[in-house]
Amino acid sequence: MSNVQNAVIGTVRTVLGWVPSQWLPGGTPDPLIERRAAIGQQASRLDGPAKVSGQARFAADVAMAGLSYATLVHSPITRGRITKLESGAAEAAPGVILVMTYHNMPRLGIVPMIGGTNLSAAGNSALPTMQGPDIWYNGQVVAMVLAETQEQADYAASLIEIDYREDSAKTSFENAKPDSRAPASVLFEKNHVSIGNAEQELNRAAFKVDNIYRTPGHNHNAIELHAVTVAWDGDTVLLHDATQAISATASAIAKLFNLKNEQVRVLSPLVGGGFGGKAFWDHQIIAVAAAKLAARPVRLILSRDSVYRMIGGRSPSEQRVAVGADAEGKFTSIIHTGYSIMPPYAACPEPYTLGTRAIYKSKSFEIIQRYLDLDIVPNTFMRAPGEAIGTFALENAVDELAHEMGLDPIELRLRNEPEKHPISGATFSQHATRQAYLDGAERFGWEQREARPGARRDGEWRIGMGCASGGFPYVRMPGVNIRIELRRDGSAKISCSAQEMGMGTATVQTQHAADRLGLPVEAISFELGDSALPVAPMAGGSSQTASLSGAVIAGAERLTIELLRLAGNDSPIAGLRAGEVQLAKEGIASLDDPSRYESFRSIMARASRDEVTVTASGSPPLEMFKFAMHSSSAIFCQLRVSDVTGEIRVDRMLGSFDCGTILNPKTAASQFKGGMIMGLGLALTEETLFDERSGRIMNASLADYHVPSHLDVPEIDVIWTGIPDPRSPLGARGIGEIGITGVAAAVANAVFNATGTRVRDLPITLDKVLSEIP
Amino acid sequence: MIPFTYTRASSADEAASMAIRTGHKLLGGGTNLVDLMRKNVELPSCLVDVTALSDSIKETQEGGVMIGAAARNSAVAAHPLVRTRYPMLSRAILAGASAQIRNMATVAGNLMQRTRCIYFNDVAGSRCNKRSPGSGCDAVGGFNRYHAIIGAAPACIATHPSDMCVALAALDARIHVYNKNATRIIPIVDFHGFPADRPDLETVLEAGDVITSIEIPVSPFAARSAYRKVRDRASYAFALVSVAAGVTMRERTIDDIRVAFGGIAPKPWRAFRVEMALRGGPATQEAFDDAVEAELARAVPLAGNAFKIGLTKRTLSAVLTELTGDAR
Questions:
Q1: Rounded to the nearest 5 degrees, what angle is found at the Cα of A659, between the Cα atoms of A653 and A662?
Q2: Residue A304 sits in which domain range?
Q3: Where is the FAD-binding PCMH-type domain (chain B) (predicted)?
């Protein structure tokens, strides 16, 4: 982002401030907040039976005649140049169809990068894909082998001989600091925030903490490996892809291979987990190129090792957080600065300070992030980029301050609850963190907590309780297009190239469309996962549900207008305008006089129509600029720490969420719990072992990179305020990412409560705790 | 993975005759060997499947237990003879891997499994003297949290990853090995070697050797025995430190004792010094501490694993305190 962008966004915000809120999209609360039937109901995933019975077909499952199989070869060096590349033995190996290297890879440009300026882009790397001998990072793809079977391809790949000239590489986090850069903005926010004199306020504060917090790199480990099955048919190409960016993938392939958009089709009806890692990377490009060169359909499933080597993860960070408070516990200073890695060819910052800008009021703020340029696989977004690790630092510090003050940490937080956005001054559209805390504390039994660390014991185990705040902003994406086909038989089909990564997208939008169109749930089908359908942006930023809902609203409005036109003058609803009716009971009714009603069937029969089809796109998401729209959470954790070994075992967790309307309690609870489990990994086990001597990731497997095992995951309780947000479609805000936020701090704070040891360096492994236990 | 052939041996003799050939490797459950083949760490030209060899678990004439080489780990852990006479072994097996892996893995394969050193596993990017003698060791200056603090060598600091073998070491198990019409018996403490200059040579087995069974002698320790494993997550993680221990008491005195450590050495580490120090003495905290000090006096900690010295002491002390608690 640039200074120009900062200025534009700032201007938009200023202008919008003058506009009465009811003029804005979402300014009048969505009527479905009050009037709903299917929304808010517990509903099982529509794709659940197919998944659990093995019928669901993922990108790597698609059968094709003449399919060939690809294996990738990665650079074992970090910077340098290929000096010799000998592929003769591989080409001669049994079953080999094609060996592709920079020698014969088609000459291609660079993909459009993910970013705020181009929502139709999903590229993660500005580096060329196998276009030359230069090596930019350890793990870069240098060759691909295509063969009749996967085993033949794997074997032949081992026969390729490559010599490299090794150049010096930037691999040290510490050494890169002097050359760090501070960008003008981080995502859509101005990077540097300076309100008052935070250092001075900190110095004179009655109570203060000032610490460095460290979080390691993390790798994506969606259980479904990245996979793509590609087939060319003449000059059109079809990709079955595991992607959370369907339209963007299609347009990137079209741009790279000089095709028209309609010559590329991407199918991705089901994805086995995305979390930010399944946008656009080298493997799709390589598979499409290989299928073209070999004139064969190609399947490329990344090995788990390949995912670590060529799909970026969450950047490590070093964060300074300082909080100063006056005698009453009111914050007078919040400082949040730090470093994360982002090479110039990466597109995704790690915005760990963004959450800090919205969570507490303070007399002064000093916030700035700096990027380090290291030679790594381009880092990317991972579930709650920024907030996941930013809340670890901030909420650890707040807990520490509460302990210094002898205050309950919930009480300290509630004393600093902002009435409006602490930085922008914008009004919160809806904000009930206080209620989330109070509800959560009561249900969790927070009053059982002993404030004095180490006070509770059970044999060799010390018991501790901790809590922390989480948060995530509301985002609704522009550019969501939708098609609604209403049929005379009373059914409707909604179509959109949206993504289903296991969240229950189709399920929830089916519930929504039923209420929006006044139809029973069984009458709705929701079609997604296909780039041939109306264009939607990638699923990211917890935005898809709100964005799709906005488009369904726009579609329903268009449908209403079209039906009123068809109804004509001989209808009980003749003369009514769109704003004066609602779709209900399988027809249109006057809002003022519900007896003025005509069914869809009747309207369409009279007009001799079998179907009415409309297309629409969601309104511009101006509500995001007019209001401060943030979800928040209160996470509670009880755990035990062994006095003997320092081992930490979490006994129970509770998440209390304030995220607006909950559209489907079942799928929502799964999202929250899944996020919290991922938070446990962040807190206790996950760490990419990046060997700074070589620039190589050393634990590129699920055996060596520890995600929580079943036994590590305790009972998790999830509750929510359910208070609708009057400024968003359905009153809902996204829930995909907030679950992970706050968890690491809640765990760290519970460890402190159990032992008196403050761990500021993730993951909290037993040695870090043990060193402090006598 | 490179192309290989596969054959099944129906007897120890047949297995031995094939095992002696170049490039042939014996295949048990495949839970380690096949993984290493996929990573091109192991490059056998022929796999000789020995799972048809005995998998029986029987009482011996002396009152011990004889476990066939092909017995699955889960079968051993669940067997009534093992559970009642050697509960430590049952617990050790159940502390390892996952249920699915234990169902596949054989006891002989467990003895033969190789280190999980991340540099050993990284053919493309790392130097390793175990994989390629003389090439160097990237673990010494790298990530060595899981590496050895005792018994290692500058050439190799890898640990033996087994839980089962730690209990077997404490129980004085004997490995029955067949070769050329003869069977010899190797005490488990002599079965695995020290890395010294040849970390690639991990056991005393010679070409053509086939493990046929594992014998566990009568043990008086069942009533007071334990296996405690300390790890980074609650399940499916290798030991940072593990302790197998068995004690017999004569009033307040330790009559006899067996202790072995896992996770800290290149082999299942029988703690003879601990045993010597405690045998015939009082079961006191001071005695435990002195004993483990004696054992770890020669420990060589590295940047990533120095915590294991304290952790080993604490864990052993806690285990022995629990085992002797009612007698003190």
A1: 90
A2: 59-168+228-273+278-310
A3: 1-221
